[in-house]
Request: fold
Amino acid sequence: MEFKDNEPIYLQIAAYVSEQILLGKWTADDKVPSVRELAVALQVNPNTVMRTYEQLQNQEVIYNKRGIGFFVAPDAVKKVKALKKERFLQQDLPEFFRNLFLLDINLDEIQQRYEAYIAQNLESETR
Amino acid sequence: MEFKDNEPIYLQIAAYVSEQILLGKWTADDKVPSVRELAVALQVNPNTVMRTYEQLQNQEVIYNKRGIGFFVAPDAVKKVKALKKERFLQQDLPEFFRNLFLLDINLDEIQQRYEAYIAQNLESETR
Amino acid sequence: MEFKDNEPIYLQIAAYVSEQILLGKWTADDKVPSVRELAVALQVNPNTVMRTYEQLQNQEVIYNKRGIGFFVAPDAVKKVKALKKERFLQQDLPEFFRNLFLLDINLDEIQQRYEAYIAQNLESETR
Amino acid sequence: MEFKDNEPIYLQIAAYVSEQILLGKWTADDKVPSVRELAVALQVNPNTVMRTYEQLQNQEVIYNKRGIGFFVAPDAVKKVKALKKERFLQQDLPEFFRNLFLLDINLDEIQQRYEAYIAQNLESETR
DNA sequence: GTGGTCTAGACCACC
DNA sequence: GTGGTCTAGACCACA
Reply:
């Protein structure tokens, strides 16, 4: 996994974990990878992963069994979806519209690109 | 002008200047406000504006006449549009599509929201 | 290290860093001194060193690992050499030739002076 | 005339004037262009040309007849040559040699480039 | 007047 | 610990 450098790494990892949950790969009461495990896999400092898990724990997306590890919360999908949707509608969408306007891009063009995107990503997504 | 605190001020100012150019309010070979002038207007430190102008100069959006000031580059609109479009296509759009997919949002819904957005913002934009 | 006062300090530091790389003293993926560290060593303000590193990062001579520090880019030597050579051929050399012409100096004389220069500097350079 | 942006314009103009004298185009006790005249020709602020002339007057390359203008000093060629040569030997040459060394360029290559330069510039120079 | 550089010092997020 | 941003204020060369 490679990280964008305009966004904190721990947040990018949080997004990654959230997506795994959203995609149903990690489901309710599954154990998520240990801090050390994930840190090694992603080649980051364990502190960074720890921060991710703290964040997700605060959002009640995962919970902690002391000495054992972190686990996916029962209503994790709902939580993640709510959080994601709010940010999308409040922040991403207005900026997206502003860009459409300033760059004079038509929604039809977006539609076409979206279809191409879907075609390209659907199978790999569900792999 | 008020600044978000999750993005560097000097970049927000750069975006502001770029938009002025994109909207045609500052045009080719116009003098942009002097560093001090803009700093006072925006209530920031001159160094911060200086940094903005350095950035825009590197992007060849503005150029410098020594001892006189900064001026809008002849092809500034093209430059700004190219930079903005690239970031939009490379970064914003894929993430946007990913969100649509993950949140199971239909493009039709986006369309409706866009029309509402346009209706709300068109007049204020061209003021 | 002492600085000339007709050239910005941050550029002189950049030249210094570039030379270290060119001379092979700092090599690919080495960590360069931290901003604060180098600032103390050179007795300048950290901001000044920061500016140097920004510059070198833009030139892709060094890269950043967030929270860890700056590192010499894998192809830093190539980059530095290319940048230096371009400036040399485009700017320095034509002016040099013009001076030879205007001052009526022969290349033979230059050759002799060069040999003297080499003799004087070779050992100290490779120290 | 176009100016490099790493050197003060007034010094570039001074260099230009000096070269005219060195090339014998303006000779002893000739009147040099008036400040205003030269400023218009070079598209710079008259103050800038004034500064050039002050500089050259300090170096005793030109002298002033009040109310009439500036004139080439009788020994201007000697003066210019001495000044130019000193800077060349003290500053330009050592830096030149350092570049040869760091970029691993052979004097033979310089020789070849010099011949090409001469061939290309001799006629246009004496036009 | 203009930009440009530098210092001192603070505060912050991130790793 | 690391970089990154920002302020306040100074000083300078240049046009």
